[in-house]
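FORM 12-B: Structure-to-Sequence Request
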């Protein structure tokens, strides 16, 4: 994206009511954390976009400028563009220059993400997470509870 084609952002209202309504309609909500602060990215359908209620409740709205005859993007493409721009802005602000977690906390999170069942068992039984190799595979056996 060039400087002149960055997504336009405008202020709105809190989205909590919108999310409650989505829950009541038994629709899936997927939250993508873009920190700080935590951010939920609500992406509308390709045909109808977001509902007027969702737009009214949004803290911000993002418009992706387009050239040529096509005036819409596939939802996954639009989402990727917005997430890439968020990452680019954070990278330019130096937010990725240093780890925000110490090595132990980073290892714990990595283990839980790669091996959720083993992590749950270790947590329930008070057992330390076993070591992982460079591919994220568990090395050796998991210790038995004391």
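FORM 12-B RESPONSE
SEQUENCE OUT:
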């Amino acid at each position: 994206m060039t400087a002149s084609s960055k997504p336009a952002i405008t202020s709105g209202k809190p989205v909590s009511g919108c999310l409650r309504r989505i829950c009541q309609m038994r629709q899936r909500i997927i939250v993508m954390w873009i920190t700080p602060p935590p951010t939920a990215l609500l992406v509308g359908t390709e045909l109808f976009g977001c509902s007027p209620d969702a737009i009214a409740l949004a803290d911000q709205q993002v418009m992706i400028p387009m050239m040529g005859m096509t005036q819409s993007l596939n939802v996954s493409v639009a989402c990727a563009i917005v997430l890439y721009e968020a990452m680019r802005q954070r990278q330019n602000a130096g937010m990725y220059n240093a780890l925000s977690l110490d090595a132990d906390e980073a290892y714990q999170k990595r283990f839980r993400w790669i091996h959720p069942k083993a992590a749950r068992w270790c947590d329930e039984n008070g057992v330390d997470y076993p070591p992982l190799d460079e591919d994220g595979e568990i090395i050796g056996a998991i210790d038995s509870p004391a």
